[in-house]
Amino acid sequence: MHKAFMSLPRLVQILLLLIPGVNLITEIVVRVSAFIAKPTLMHLLVVVLAIITLGIIGWIDLVWCLLFKKLILM
């Protein structure tokens, strides 16, 4: 799922990260799928952090996506 998200057009990525409820769900699904694809401690910590902060990481990812065309810590 994380590769599918990264292959979406940038406008769609930004829209998914801009809507508050969708932001949280998208963030958790993309982070969990990245952890399943490559189970490292960094991916696990980011999944836990995304769940604990309840979407704040998603807002940071929105800015990161605008600036660097990828998600933070991915």
Could you give a quick summary of the protein structure above?
By secondary structure, the protein is mostly helical. It has helices at residues 2-7, 10-18, 20-37, 41-53, 56-68.
Q: Describe it for me?
A:
- The chain has five helices and no strands.
- The protein has 74 residues and is an all-alpha fold.
- Helix 2 packs antiparallel against helix 5, helix 3 (20-37) packs antiparallel against helix 4 and helix 3 crosses helix 5 (56-68).
- The longest helix has 18 residues, at 20-37.
- The two termini are 13 Å apart.
- The model has no long low-confidence stretch (mean pLDDT 86).
Strand and helix map with partners:
Blueprint (H helix, E strand, L loop, with lengths): L1 H6 L2 H9 L1 H18 L3 H13 L2 H13 L6
Low-pLDDT parts are none
DSSP summary, beta strand count: 0
Q: Hey, roughly how much beta strand do the residues contain?
A: under 5%
**Helix-and-strand structural type:** mainly alpha
Number of helices: 5
Global outline: globular
Largest sheet: none
What is the chain-wise order of helices and strands? HHHHH
End-to-end Cα distance: 13 Å
* Rg over C-alpha atoms, rounded to the nearest angstrom: 11 Å
Estimate percent helicity.
over 70%
Task: Round the mean pLDDT to the nearest integer and report it.
Answer: 86
